[in-house]
Design goal:
Blueprint lengths: L1 H49 L6 H11 L3 E8 L2 E10 L2 E9 L4
Antiparallel strand pairs: 1-2, 2-3
Helix pairs in contact: 1-2
């Protein structure tokens, strides 16, 4: 009996670790994807602020984030600098990423 219990316990621990690693990998993958979306959205907003592109900066950022599968959480404009934060659900969690774009200081 004790051998069966030990085997079941070992399998349960292994399954738990496998699920945990898969979840962490998924979150890391989505986080990297979100970083790219945040960068692109910040660049789009900064281009609109500087006049290099037409449109309303935060609307351009929101549209780009939406096309990438994320939600625009924050869009701050400080002169020609745009700071963007995007988020997307990952299972029971929410992954977030931030980016800034504008002229060099």
């Amino acid at each position: 009996m004790s051998g069966v219990g030990l085997t079941v316990s070992a399998l349960a621990v292994t399954a738990t670790l496998a699920i945990g690693c898969a979840t962490a990998g998924s979150v890391a993958s989505v986080s990297a994807h979100l970083a790219g979306i945040a960068d692109a959205a910040a660049l789009a907003a900064a281009d609109a602020v500087s006049g290099a592109a037409t449109g309303i900066p935060c609307e351009r950022a929101a549209g780009l984030a939406e096309r990438g599968g994320a939600d625009l959480v924050r869009c701050d404009l400080d002169g020609l600098i745009a700071t963007i934060e995007v988020a997307a659900p990952v299972g029971a969690f929410t992954a977030r990423a931030r980016a800034r774009a504008g002229p060099a200081p």
